[in-house]
Design a protein that fits this description.
SGNH_hydro, 7 strands, 5-stranded parallel beta sheet, GDSL family lipase, 49% helix, 280 residues, alpha/beta, 11 helices, Rossmann fold
Length: 280
């Protein structure tokens, strides 16, 4: 008898609960989902193609991680700051002059294909062109020696940009300047800094004529070391020299890991200033 009453009580309870839930569902409207299917689609990570073209600074010589200098740092920042899924392709080759970069662009279909799909491009060029002028005129070097070669370099730079945009006419391009790696040890070579400044001015004046092409200066960030005033004094016996702590000690010429971090920040700062031209 007691068992029967318990069973009847349970049936009554669950029947009442079911009736209450049904009544609640009829009387209370269903809440709309917070995220619609369209919202989920919008939240998908956008793919972003970044192409880096240039010389040893793009290849990353001096980067002891062997990851590619400032290029992967920029790519990672685009992921962290903008939420992009970045596909970064590095076409940097140490020692390349503007002529050699042009030749690779004309002959390598992989570069052309990457540029046609790119959302953004960085370019390091000019340092090896300047070096060639110095070596070709080492016995009679004057500031005026660089005037004619800089004009020819400017024309090649325009051609590089033209080729980069052949199938991608609105491609935003960031052109990095060059720097004077000899300043700290040879500050008396004032002509060298003038030559570097003039070369950078040629690059800037060339790109300033073009839409969505930007000059990124790095000389002032690197030529005096990390703190911007002096490097590290290194003494060996009677020999004392100043080491630029933004440069790789293996050659005292290319940036070290910190130097590439400084370059990355310069590129990102310019990108931030011009974000409307590439962010979509």
């Amino acid at each position: 008898m007691n068992s029967r009453k318990v069973l009847q009580g349970l049936v009554f309870f669950f029947t009442s609960l079911l009736g209450f839930l049904l009544l609640f569902h009829l009387l209370v409207p269903s809440a709309q989902p917070v995220l619609s299917k369209a919202d989920y689609t919008k939240s998908k990570i956008k793919r972003f193609s970044y192409v880096a073209l240039g010389d040893s600074l793009t290849q990353g010589v001096g980067d002891t991680t062997n990851q590619g200098g400032f290029v992967p740092l920029v790519a990672q920042s685009l992921t962290n700051n903008e939420g992009y899924q970045v596909d970064a392709q590095n076409f940097g080759v140490a020692g390349n002059t503007s002529n050699q970069i042009l030749k690779r662009m004309e002959e390598n279909p992989e570069i052309a294909d990457a540029l046609a799909k790119a959302d953004l491009m960085t370019l390091t060029v000019g340092g090896n062109d300047l070096r060639k002028v110095i070596l070709d005129n080492i016995t009679s070097l004057k500031i005026t020696t660089f005037k004619k070669p800089s004009i020819a370099y400017s024309k090649r730079l325009l051609r590089i940009i033209e080729l980069a945009r052949k199938d991608n006419p609105n491609l935003p391009i960031y052109v990095l300047g060059i720097y004077n790696p000899f300043y700290l040890n040879f500050p008396e070579m004032t002509d060298m800094q003038v030559i570097v400044d003039n070369w950078n001015q040629t690059t800037q004046e060339t790109v300033d004529k073009l839409d969505k092409v930007y000059f990124v200066p790095i000389n002032d960030l690197l030529y005096q070391g990390i703190d911007g005033q002096e490097g590290v004094v290194q003494t060996s016996g009677d020999d004392t020299k100043i080491i630029n702590d933004a440069l790789y000690q293996g050659d005292n010429f290319h940036p070290n890991n910190t130097g590439y971090e400084i370059m990355k920040r310069a590129v990102l700062e310019k990108m931030s200033e011009t974000k409307d031209d590439w962010k979509n």
